[in-house]
Write a structure and sequence with these properties.
Residues 16-169 form the MEDS domain. The chain has 190 residues and is of the alpha/beta class. The protein has helices spanning 3-11, 24-41, 51-64, 67-70, 78-82, 90-106, 126-143, 158-167; strands spanning 16-21, 44-49, 73-77, 111-116, 147-152, 170-173, 176-179. 50% of the residues lie in helices and 19% in strands. Helix 7 (126-143) packs parallel to helix 8. The mean pLDDT is 87.
Amino acid sequence: MASKMNLLLETQRNVHVLYAFEGAGNYMKQLLDYINEGIHAGDYVLVVENERLTRELTQHMKKRYTEKQLAMVKFVNSLHFYWSTGSYHPPAIHDYFTKTVAPYIENNLSFRSWAHVEWESVKEPLFLIEDFEKIADRAVDEYEFPLICAYEKKKMPLHLTESLMKTHPYVLLEDEFIASPQYQSAPRQV
């Protein structure tokens, strides 16, 4: 993983990152690095992922980690996470996430999260995705945890890329970690 990001995570917990990945191999490497860094930092790692990749990741991790280390990683089914109400509804996603992280927050446990954001095609209205990312950005600040939002680059039309650059203060490229020049901080709710 980009060493600049690891250095940032050592000093700042509330880090919201856009990862526009190219290819399954690159994706798996970055995710496994993130999990590894989390385990070694003493963080619980919440991974929102589809069932197929969860099985693949679990098999790989069983060869690499002890039972105690494996218990630090929690997989959340991405279909249930994003579509719990039968449609992509940002407030429902936020509620699902809040319930998922509640035990970590209530017990003052350090955690980080990775969310694979995927759908067959980007048919959802752009404002819904942007609304969700603004909610996620506020949650990162409120709960002080790092979050990487992974989107497959080839499935990101230009208008979505522009929106995501506005809602993520940092961007992870395959070999670089940068601050997003287009980032616009979401207004805080009272």
